[in-house]
Every structure is written in C-alpha cells, then in structure tokens.
Amino acid sequence: NISTGETFAVQFLAPVISKFRLKYPDVKIKISSRQPETIIDNLITHKTDFGISFTKNIPNTLKSIYVSSFPMGILCSPDHLLANKTEISLEDCLKFPLIFHPGTVTFWNSIQREVGEKLFSINPNLISNSFAFIKNYLIDDINYLTFFTSVGSYREIESKKLIFKKINHKLFLNNSVGIIVSKKNKLKKYTEEFIDLVKQEFQSSTNC
C-alpha cells in the first residue's frame, strides 16, 4: 500500500512497477492518490506501507528515509508573459489568474502568511484536484499559472508544451519531497526493494 500525490505517482512510481514485476510478479500493489495531510494520517495509522510527499514538519512517529529538493515554482504556457522573464518574484505571479490544486493547500497557506494577506485575499480563479486537467488547461491558456514543482510535468516541460520557472523567494526554494515511513512499521523485504527502486527514480529526476 502506497499513499502519494498524483504528480509523485506519475513521476516516481509508474516507471518502477515494470522493473519490480520482473522479480515479484504476484505482489499486489495498491497506489492511492491522497492529499499531504491524509498521507501522514495513513502512515500514522498504518494504513499504508510508505508515502511520497512533502517532508517538512512531519510528526516524530514518522521518518524520511530519502529526501530530495524539488523547488516550487510556476507552471505556465510558453506564451505566458512570465515565460521568458529571467527573475520572477511572488508579486509578479499574483498579478495573474491562478489555478489551485488542493494538494498544495499547505503551501498556499504559507504564502498567505508570508505576504501578510488574509485567507481570502489570494483567491484562485480556478480550482481542480486533477493535475492532468491543470496541465492541459495551462497548455491552452496563456494567462493562467499554477504553483507546483516540476515533478509530474517533465514530459510537457521537455517538449516545450509547458514552462517551469523558479521563483526568487525562500518559500519556493526550500521545498523537499521524500519517501516517508512509520518508525514502528516493519517493512517486508519486497517493500524495501520497491522503495530502493523509487530512490533510484528520485535520483534520476534530481539529475535531470
């Protein structure tokens, strides 16, 4: 049982399953797309073997067994006004209509606290819990943008269908994603081997 966000499943899990199946063809794999808070809850209650999520401020009963830096930034169309700008500030981003994914709610709250704005003042114009929809919408729209890591969008970025731009702000740069487990949970051998494959995928993505 694996709990993770939609983008992390696409980036880190899809490529390793076929490799894992070569050695363990009969092991049942269940992948659940969850919000970060639910991933943590599932790990604490032992409803999942491991999670892939943001690693900042996890409870003491959990531990990160692999962590990598994936800065937050903006995803937008190559024709967006910010696409060719060398340095982008948070203030630049807030001038444009925003798409919100519920999986980034903790990050949005941090932004609101940082800029000293009330909860309703940074108001997304479009909300969707489907990252696939968000990506397709951004490809076709030159005004909207969203705050995300580049995870889950490498194909679109490499093919120039979307642009990922880092933002010059500490909130965006200090962002880590990792593999999280419960300190009390004894993992089976095949689960540990699956996690090793995921670690390799993390390393490959970091080096891209």
- What letter string, H or E per element, gives the SSE order? EHEHEEEHEHEHEHEHEH
Radius of gyration equals: 18 Å
Low-confidence stretches: none
Mean pLDDT over the residues:
85
Helix content: 25-40%
Distance between the termini: 28 Å
Structural class: alpha/beta
Overall spatial form: globular
Q: How many DSSP H or I helices?
A: 8
Q: Main sheet, how many strands, which sense, barrel? A: 5 strands, mixed
What strand order characterises the main sheet? 2-1-3-10-4
Number of DSSP E strands: 10
- Give the DSSP E fraction (strand runs of 2 or more residues): 15-25%
How is this structure best summarized?
The chain contains eight helices and ten strands. The chain is α/β, with parallel strands linked by helices.
Describe the overall structure.
The radius of gyration is 18 Å and the shape is globular. It has eight helices and ten strands. With 208 residues, the chain is α/β, with parallel strands linked by helices.
